[in-house]
Amino acid sequence: MESDSVGSIAISAKLLTDILEKLSQNNRLLFSVKENNIIEISSTTGNYTLAYLDGAEFPQPVAFLPEANKVTLLGDGVSNCCTKRRFLQ
Q1: What are the backbone angles phi and psi of residue 14, rounded to the nearest 5°?
Q2: Measured in whole angstroms, how far is the alpha carbon of residue 43 from the centre of its chain?
Q3: Which phi and psi (to 5°) does residue 34 adopt?
Q4: CB atoms within 10 A of CB 82
Q5: Which of 1, 3, 47, 55 has its CA 20 to 30 Å from the CA of residue 72?
Q6: pLDDT of residue 87
């Protein structure tokens, strides 16, 4: 995962999951934060536009662990999560 900026936004987990389910495992994603609280998700098979909220408007996680305020998503993990979700439906 690469990034040229640092920030915090909140998007609908349901909408993101629906998008990820439509993509193949080898699909490269590009997330672009735009003006007016819009995020664009581009892939080789489609483009998606979602509204987002400023992450600062949400409560900060309780710091039980040193890394409690960070979430790292690896592509394989997201893909595996989507595959399991499809299996459970």
Answers
A1: -65, -45
A2: 13
A3: -110, 180
A4: 19
A5: 47
A6: 46
Q: DSSP per residue over 7-63, as a string?
A: --EE--HHHHHHHHHHS-TT---EEEEETTTEEEEE-SS-EEEEE-EEGGGSPPPP-
Q: Closest by alpha carbon to 17, among 70, 86, 74?
A: 86
**Residue 56 clears pLDDT 70, i.e. is over it:** yes
Give the number of residues written for the chain.
89
Q: Is the pLDDT of residue 27 over 90?
A: no
Give 39's strand partners.
33, 50
- End-to-end Cα spacing for the chain: 29
Pairing of strands 47-51, 38-42: antiparallel
pTM score:
0.59
Q: Which residue type is seen at 48?
A: Y
